[in-house]
Design brief:
15 helices; Serine Threonine Protein Phosphatase 5, Tetratricopeptide repeat
Protein backbone atom coordinates (compact mmCIF):
# COMPACT_ATOMS: atom_id res chain seq x y z
CA UNK A 1 0.00 0.00 0.00
CA UNK A 2 2.86 2.30 0.87
CA UNK A 3 4.37 1.56 -2.58
CA UNK A 4 1.07 2.47 -4.27
CA UNK A 5 0.88 5.76 -2.36
CA UNK A 6 4.48 6.57 -3.36
CA UNK A 7 3.69 5.84 -7.02
CA UNK A 8 0.59 8.02 -6.85
CA UNK A 9 2.61 10.79 -5.20
CA UNK A 10 5.32 10.53 -7.87
CA UNK A 11 2.73 10.64 -10.65
CA UNK A 12 1.10 13.68 -9.04
CA UNK A 13 4.41 15.53 -8.80
CA UNK A 14 5.30 14.70 -12.40
CA UNK A 15 1.87 15.79 -13.58
CA UNK A 16 2.23 19.06 -11.68
CA UNK A 17 5.59 19.71 -13.33
CA UNK A 18 4.16 18.91 -16.76
CA UNK A 19 1.22 21.24 -16.16
CA UNK A 20 3.57 23.99 -15.01
CA UNK A 21 5.69 23.51 -18.12
CA UNK A 22 2.60 23.73 -20.29
CA UNK A 23 1.22 26.85 -18.61
CA UNK A 24 4.47 28.71 -17.91
CA UNK A 25 4.83 31.70 -20.23
CA UNK A 26 8.63 31.53 -20.34
CA UNK A 27 8.87 28.88 -23.11
CA UNK A 28 6.37 30.88 -25.16
CA UNK A 29 8.46 34.01 -24.67
CA UNK A 30 11.56 32.15 -25.81
CA UNK A 31 9.71 30.89 -28.89
CA UNK A 32 8.59 34.43 -29.76
CA UNK A 33 12.19 35.62 -29.57
CA UNK A 34 13.38 32.69 -31.70
CA UNK A 35 10.76 33.54 -34.33
CA UNK A 36 11.97 37.14 -34.44
CA UNK A 37 15.61 36.11 -34.78
CA UNK A 38 14.71 33.72 -37.57
CA UNK A 39 13.11 36.59 -39.51
CA UNK A 40 9.53 35.34 -39.04
CA UNK A 41 8.32 38.73 -37.91
CA UNK A 42 4.55 38.28 -38.35
CA UNK A 43 4.58 35.12 -36.23
CA UNK A 44 6.82 36.78 -33.62
CA UNK A 45 4.43 39.73 -33.34
CA UNK A 46 1.43 37.44 -32.95
CA UNK A 47 3.20 35.34 -30.30
CA UNK A 48 4.47 38.30 -28.25
CA UNK A 49 1.15 40.14 -28.44
CA UNK A 50 -0.74 37.02 -27.34
CA UNK A 51 1.50 36.78 -24.27
CA UNK A 52 0.92 40.43 -23.41
CA UNK A 53 -2.83 40.05 -23.88
CA UNK A 54 -2.87 36.97 -21.64
CA UNK A 55 -1.37 38.92 -18.69
CA UNK A 56 0.50 35.73 -17.80
CA UNK A 57 3.96 37.36 -17.66
CA UNK A 58 5.67 38.87 -14.66
CA UNK A 59 7.06 42.41 -15.02
CA UNK A 60 10.41 41.28 -16.41
CA UNK A 61 8.70 38.99 -18.90
CA UNK A 62 6.38 41.81 -19.92
CA UNK A 63 9.36 44.06 -20.62
CA UNK A 64 10.95 41.34 -22.74
CA UNK A 65 7.73 40.75 -24.71
CA UNK A 66 7.45 44.45 -25.51
CA UNK A 67 11.08 44.43 -26.66
CA UNK A 68 10.46 41.46 -28.96
CA UNK A 69 7.51 43.35 -30.43
CA UNK A 70 9.76 46.35 -31.02
CA UNK A 71 12.38 44.26 -32.81
CA UNK A 72 9.78 42.57 -35.02
CA UNK A 73 7.97 45.80 -35.90
CA UNK A 74 11.30 47.45 -36.73
CA UNK A 75 12.26 44.56 -39.01
CA UNK A 76 8.90 45.00 -40.75
CA UNK A 77 9.54 48.70 -41.21
CA UNK A 78 6.74 49.75 -38.83
CA UNK A 79 8.81 52.35 -37.01
CA UNK A 80 6.02 54.09 -35.07
CA UNK A 81 4.84 50.79 -33.59
CA UNK A 82 8.42 49.74 -32.89
CA UNK A 83 9.11 52.96 -31.00
CA UNK A 84 5.97 52.52 -28.89
CA UNK A 85 6.93 48.92 -28.06
CA UNK A 86 10.51 49.82 -27.10
CA UNK A 87 9.27 52.66 -24.91
CA UNK A 88 6.86 50.30 -23.12
CA UNK A 89 9.75 47.89 -22.55
CA UNK A 90 11.97 50.65 -21.17
CA UNK A 91 9.21 51.96 -18.86
CA UNK A 92 8.75 48.43 -17.52
CA UNK A 93 12.44 47.84 -16.81
CA UNK A 94 12.84 51.28 -15.24
CA UNK A 95 10.70 49.93 -12.40
CA UNK A 96 13.00 46.91 -12.01
CA UNK A 97 16.40 48.17 -10.79
CA UNK A 98 17.74 44.60 -10.58
CA UNK A 99 17.21 44.05 -14.33
CA UNK A 100 19.93 46.39 -15.55
CA UNK A 101 20.98 44.09 -18.39
CA UNK A 102 17.44 43.81 -19.79
CA UNK A 103 16.99 47.58 -19.43
CA UNK A 104 20.24 48.13 -21.33
CA UNK A 105 19.12 45.78 -24.12
CA UNK A 106 15.85 47.67 -24.55
CA UNK A 107 17.72 50.99 -24.65
CA UNK A 108 20.20 49.58 -27.15
CA UNK A 109 17.40 48.47 -29.46
CA UNK A 110 15.72 51.89 -29.23
CA UNK A 111 19.04 53.44 -30.23
CA UNK A 112 19.13 51.15 -33.26
CA UNK A 113 15.65 52.29 -34.22
CA UNK A 114 16.66 55.95 -34.00
CA UNK A 115 19.52 55.22 -36.39
CA UNK A 116 17.11 53.54 -38.83
CA UNK A 117 14.84 56.58 -38.53
CA UNK A 118 17.72 58.85 -39.55
CA UNK A 119 18.66 60.27 -36.13
CA UNK A 120 22.32 59.20 -35.64
CA UNK A 121 23.04 61.75 -32.91
CA UNK A 122 20.17 60.48 -30.75
CA UNK A 123 21.22 56.90 -31.47
CA UNK A 124 24.78 57.68 -30.39
CA UNK A 125 23.66 59.31 -27.14
CA UNK A 126 21.47 56.35 -26.20
CA UNK A 127 24.13 53.79 -27.07
CA UNK A 128 26.71 55.61 -24.95
CA UNK A 129 24.29 55.38 -22.03
CA UNK A 130 23.76 51.71 -22.83
CA UNK A 131 27.51 51.08 -22.74
CA UNK A 132 27.70 52.59 -19.24
CA UNK A 133 24.89 50.31 -18.06
CA UNK A 134 26.56 47.20 -19.47
CA UNK A 135 29.83 48.27 -17.88
CA UNK A 136 28.05 48.63 -14.53
CA UNK A 137 27.12 44.94 -14.58
CA UNK A 138 30.42 43.83 -16.18
CA UNK A 139 28.67 42.55 -19.32
CA UNK A 140 31.49 42.30 -21.86
CA UNK A 141 29.21 40.90 -24.56
CA UNK A 142 26.90 43.89 -24.26
CA UNK A 143 29.84 46.29 -24.28
CA UNK A 144 31.24 44.60 -27.40
CA UNK A 145 27.93 44.91 -29.27
CA UNK A 146 27.40 48.55 -28.33
CA UNK A 147 31.00 49.49 -29.13
CA UNK A 148 30.58 47.91 -32.57
CA UNK A 149 27.38 49.90 -33.10
CA UNK A 150 29.11 53.11 -32.02
CA UNK A 151 31.90 52.33 -34.49
CA UNK A 152 29.31 52.03 -37.25
CA UNK A 153 27.67 55.30 -36.25
CA UNK A 154 31.02 57.08 -36.32
CA UNK A 155 32.06 55.57 -39.66
CA UNK A 156 28.70 56.52 -41.13
CA UNK A 157 29.44 60.14 -40.22
CA UNK A 158 32.99 59.90 -41.65
CA UNK A 159 34.51 60.19 -38.17
CA UNK A 160 37.15 57.60 -39.00
CA UNK A 161 39.35 58.12 -35.94
CA UNK A 162 36.40 57.72 -33.56
CA UNK A 163 35.16 54.70 -35.49
CA UNK A 164 38.58 53.07 -35.25
CA UNK A 165 38.67 53.72 -31.50
CA UNK A 166 35.22 52.20 -30.93
CA UNK A 167 36.07 49.19 -33.07
CA UNK A 168 39.27 48.55 -31.13
CA UNK A 169 37.20 48.72 -27.95
CA UNK A 170 34.69 46.26 -29.41
CA UNK A 171 37.44 43.78 -30.29
CA UNK A 172 38.86 44.01 -26.76
CA UNK A 173 35.44 43.25 -25.30
CA UNK A 174 34.92 40.36 -27.74
CA UNK A 175 38.01 38.69 -26.29
CA UNK A 176 36.59 39.04 -22.76
CA UNK A 177 33.02 38.01 -23.60
CA UNK A 178 31.89 34.41 -23.27
CA UNK A 179 28.41 34.34 -24.79
CA UNK A 180 28.52 36.21 -28.10
CA UNK A 181 26.53 34.47 -30.82
CA UNK A 182 27.21 34.36 -34.56
CA UNK A 183 24.99 37.41 -35.16
CA UNK A 184 27.07 39.48 -32.76
CA UNK A 185 30.38 38.28 -34.16
CA UNK A 186 29.18 38.90 -37.72
CA UNK A 187 28.21 42.47 -36.83
CA UNK A 188 31.66 43.18 -35.38
CA UNK A 189 33.35 41.59 -38.40
CA UNK A 190 31.26 43.72 -40.77
CA UNK A 191 32.47 46.85 -38.95
CA UNK A 192 36.04 45.65 -39.52
CA UNK A 193 35.15 45.28 -43.19
CA UNK A 194 33.74 48.80 -43.36
CA UNK A 195 36.81 50.34 -41.73
CA UNK A 196 39.11 48.35 -44.02
CA UNK A 197 37.08 49.57 -46.99
CA UNK A 198 37.55 53.18 -45.90
CA UNK A 199 41.26 52.48 -45.38
CA UNK A 200 41.33 51.07 -48.95
CA UNK A 201 42.58 47.74 -47.62
CA UNK A 202 40.81 45.54 -50.19
CA UNK A 203 42.19 42.25 -48.90
CA UNK A 204 41.12 42.82 -45.29
CA UNK A 205 37.74 44.19 -46.39
CA UNK A 206 37.00 41.06 -48.45
CA UNK A 207 38.18 38.73 -45.69
CA UNK A 208 36.11 40.32 -42.93
CA UNK A 209 32.95 40.72 -45.04
CA UNK A 210 33.25 37.08 -46.11
CA UNK A 211 33.59 36.11 -42.46
CA UNK A 212 30.42 38.07 -41.63
CA UNK A 213 28.51 36.34 -44.42
CA UNK A 214 29.74 32.91 -43.31
CA UNK A 215 28.64 33.59 -39.74
CA UNK A 216 25.19 34.79 -40.80
CA UNK A 217 24.74 31.79 -43.07
CA UNK A 218 25.79 29.43 -40.29
CA UNK A 219 23.35 31.07 -37.89
CA UNK A 220 20.37 31.58 -40.20
CA UNK A 221 20.91 29.70 -43.43
CA UNK A 222 20.51 31.22 -46.88
CA UNK A 223 16.97 32.61 -46.64
CA UNK A 224 17.36 35.35 -44.04
CA UNK A 225 17.69 39.15 -44.22
CA UNK A 226 21.07 39.13 -42.49
CA UNK A 227 22.43 36.68 -45.05
CA UNK A 228 21.03 38.78 -47.87
CA UNK A 229 22.66 41.89 -46.42
CA UNK A 230 25.92 39.97 -46.06
CA UNK A 231 25.92 39.30 -49.81
CA UNK A 232 25.33 43.02 -50.45
CA UNK A 233 28.32 43.99 -48.29
CA UNK A 234 30.61 41.38 -49.80
CA UNK A 235 29.52 42.13 -53.36
CA UNK A 236 30.09 45.84 -52.89
CA UNK A 237 33.57 45.16 -51.49
CA UNK A 238 34.41 42.93 -54.45
CA UNK A 239 33.30 45.68 -56.84
CA UNK A 240 35.42 48.23 -54.99
CA UNK A 241 38.36 45.88 -55.42
CA UNK A 242 37.82 45.68 -59.18
CA UNK A 243 35.82 42.42 -59.28
CA UNK A 244 32.75 44.00 -60.89
CA UNK A 245 31.20 40.85 -62.33
CA UNK A 246 31.58 38.82 -59.14
CA UNK A 247 30.45 41.77 -57.04
CA UNK A 248 27.30 42.32 -59.06
CA UNK A 249 26.48 38.61 -58.88
CA UNK A 250 26.73 38.65 -55.07
CA UNK A 251 24.64 41.80 -54.83
CA UNK A 252 21.96 40.37 -57.11
CA UNK A 253 21.88 37.28 -54.93
CA UNK A 254 21.56 39.44 -51.84
CA UNK A 255 18.75 41.50 -53.36
CA UNK A 256 16.84 38.34 -54.24
CA UNK A 257 17.11 37.10 -50.65
CA UNK A 258 16.06 40.47 -49.23
CA UNK A 259 13.11 40.63 -51.60
CA UNK A 260 11.91 37.18 -50.55
CA UNK A 261 12.43 37.73 -46.83
CA UNK A 262 11.61 41.43 -46.38
CA UNK A 263 9.81 42.56 -49.51
CA UNK A 264 10.49 45.43 -51.89
CA UNK A 265 8.87 48.05 -49.64
CA UNK A 266 11.24 47.41 -46.74
CA UNK A 267 13.82 50.21 -46.30
CA UNK A 268 16.67 47.73 -46.01
CA UNK A 269 15.84 46.32 -49.43
CA UNK A 270 15.70 49.79 -50.95
CA UNK A 271 19.03 50.78 -49.39
CA UNK A 272 20.53 47.62 -50.86
CA UNK A 273 19.13 48.67 -54.25
CA UNK A 274 20.83 52.05 -53.90
CA UNK A 275 24.17 50.33 -53.28
CA UNK A 276 23.56 48.00 -56.21
CA UNK A 277 22.78 50.91 -58.53
CA UNK A 278 26.14 52.53 -57.75
CA UNK A 279 28.02 49.36 -58.68
CA UNK A 280 25.84 48.81 -61.74
CA UNK A 281 26.65 52.31 -62.96
CA UNK A 282 30.35 51.38 -63.03
CA UNK A 283 29.61 48.71 -65.65
CA UNK A 284 28.39 51.45 -68.01
CA UNK A 285 24.80 50.28 -67.66
CA UNK A 286 24.00 53.89 -66.82
CA UNK A 287 20.35 53.89 -67.87
CA UNK A 288 19.50 50.78 -65.84
CA UNK A 289 21.52 52.03 -62.88
CA UNK A 290 19.69 55.35 -63.00
CA UNK A 291 16.31 53.62 -63.13
CA UNK A 292 17.13 51.45 -60.12
CA UNK A 293 18.48 54.42 -58.16
CA UNK A 294 15.48 56.65 -58.85
CA UNK A 295 12.97 53.93 -58.00
CA UNK A 296 14.81 53.07 -54.76
CA UNK A 297 15.11 56.71 -53.71
CA UNK A 298 11.44 57.40 -54.44
CA UNK A 299 10.53 54.29 -52.48
CA UNK A 300 12.62 55.38 -49.50
CA UNK A 301 11.16 58.88 -49.57
CA UNK A 302 7.63 57.47 -49.67
CA UNK A 303 8.42 55.02 -46.88
CA UNK A 304 9.67 57.70 -44.52
CA UNK A 305 6.71 59.93 -45.32
CA UNK A 306 4.24 57.12 -44.60
CA UNK A 307 5.93 55.39 -41.69
CA UNK A 308 7.51 58.26 -39.86
CA UNK A 309 4.94 61.02 -40.26
CA UNK A 310 4.68 61.14 -36.47
CA UNK A 311 7.96 59.42 -35.61
CA UNK A 312 9.57 61.77 -33.11
CA UNK A 313 12.38 61.47 -30.63
CA UNK A 314 10.90 61.15 -27.16
CA UNK A 315 12.56 61.76 -23.80
CA UNK A 316 12.46 58.02 -23.09
CA UNK A 317 15.98 56.67 -22.87
CA UNK A 318 17.61 60.02 -22.10
CA UNK A 319 16.76 60.17 -18.41
Amino acid sequence: MKYVRMCLLTMTVVAAHLLAAQTSPEPSLARALALERDGRTAQAIAAAQALLDSHSLNEAGTGKAWNILGLAYQDQGSFTRAQHAYEQSIHTFERLPSNIRDYAMALDDLGGLYLAMGHPDSATAIKKKTFRLYKKVDDHAGMAIVSSDLAGLALGQKRIRAGRKYLEQALREVRLANHLDDDNLAAVSSMQGWLAELDRDVSLSLTTYQNSLDLWKRRHGEEHPSTGWGYILLGNAKAQGGQLVAGLADMQRGLSILERTLGRRNPRYMKAEMAYSRVLDRTEAHAEAGRVKVAAQQGLDAFYREQCLDCTISAVGFH
